[in-house]
Amino acid sequence: MKSLENYLSMIKPADKSVLETVQKRLDSQTKPRGSLGRLESLCKQVAAAQGRVDPVCEKKVIFILAGDHGVVAEGVSAYPQSVTGQMVLNFVNGGAGVNVLAKHAGCGVVIVDMGVAADLDFDGYIDKKIDPGTKNFTEGPAMTREQAEKSIVTGIELALDNEFDILGTGDMGIGNTTPSAAIASVIMGVNAEDVTGRGTGINDDTLNNKVDAIKRGISINRPDPEDPLDVLSKVGGFEIGGIAGLIIGTAIKKRLAVVDGFISTAGALIAGGLRKEISDYFIVSHLSAEKGHDLFTDYLGKKPVLDLGMRLGEGTGAALAIEIIDAALRLYHDMATFGEAGVDDKTGD
Fold first, then answer.
1. Tens of pLDDT along 158-183?
2. Which of 119, 120, 128, 184 has the fewest CB atoms lying closer than 10 Å?
3. Where in the chain is the domain with CATH 3.40.50.10210?
4. Which CATH architecture has domain 60-326?
C-alpha cells in the first residue's frame, strides 16, 4: 500500500489542450452555438479530465461506501445505528433507490464496508472495514490519523482497481450528516448552525442537540482547518474518507468523478483540500436539500448539475447526473455538423 502522499504526487492537472478541438466540433453542429448550455460544458469537463477529444461514458460505476459513527450515541439521528448494516443488505439485494436509478443509468454498483458497526454475514460487498464504526467525537477524535489516512488510501485503491469512464460516489451511514457538517464547519470556517440540517428527518429538539454535538466535538478536538487529514481524523467518518479517496483515485486515472450530495461533498472538501488539481476531476451531481449544501458547492466553486430537492444520498443524485453526462456525450458524438447535414451555417456574427 502506497502512502497518501505518494498517491497525491501522481495527480496532474487536466489536459485542457483538448478543449479547442472539442469546442470546434460543438460549434460546428447543427444548432446555434452554445444552445445546449450546460450539456456542452459537461462534455468539455469530461474531455479535459480524460485528456481526449473523443470523451467516452461507456463504463459507468457507482461506489456506495458504508460506515457507522460513534456520535450517534449523542442522539443525532431519527434512526438506530442498526439500519446501516440492514441497508447494506438492501443494496446487495438491489432494493434501494440507488439500485433502481443506477440500473436505469446503466451503472454498475460496488458496495463497500468501510466501517459498519455490525458483522455482515452475507456476500455481495467488498470488506474494507477499518474499525466497527468511529468513536464518539464529542469525547475525543473520531479515529486515529493513521485510520484517516487508511480510509482515504482505501478509496484511492478502490478507484484504481476498477475500470470506469465515469465514477459516481455514494454513501450509507446512520448519523453521517453530523460528521459531514462538522467537516464543513471546520474547513469552510462557518457556524455549525449554517451547515447542519435534519438528516434523517429529526425534530427541532434533536436538531438543536445535533448542532450542540458538532460544536462540542470541534471544541474538544480543535481540528486544524489547514490540515484535511486532521479534520477527517478528529470529526470525520471512514466512508467520508473513502469517498475523498475515490475522488483522488479518479483524478489519478484521469477520469471524472460525479459527487453525490451532502456526505459525498464533505468527502470532496477533504479531497480538494489535499490537492487543488483534484478540482479538475469532479463535478457535483445535484444540490442537496440538506441545509448548507449550497455553501459546500460555492466553496468548491462547483455548480450542481441538478436541483430536485433530493437528500437521500446513497449515490441517487450521482446516478441521475451520470445520465445527463451520457446524454451530453451522445449529442457530441452523434449530432451532425452543418457540413454533414447539408445545412447552411450562419453567415456572420
1. 999 999 999 999 999 999 999 999 99
2. 119
3. 60-326
4. 3-Layer(aba) Sandwich (3.40)
CA distances from 322 to 31, 55, 282, 288, 317 (A): 23, 14, 12, 16, 9
Instruction: Give the residue range(s) of CATH 1.10.1610.10 domains in the chain.
Output: 4-55+331-341
Mapped onto helix, strand or coil, the DSSP state of residue 21 is helix
Place of cell 439500485: 99
* Confidence tier at 346 by pLDDT (50, 70, 90): confident
- The residue behind cell 476498477 is 162
Mean pLDDT along residues 221-240 = 98
Catalytic amino acids?
Answer: 314
The secondary structure of residue 165, as a DSSP letter, is: S
Helices 293-300 + 262-274 axis angle, to 10 = 30
CA angle, 19 as apex, 16 and 23 as ends, to 5°? 165
Q: What number does CATH give the domain 4-55+331-341?
A: 1.10.1610.10
Closest to 3 in 3D by CA, of 127, 105, 152: 152
Coil/strand/helix, residue 144: coil
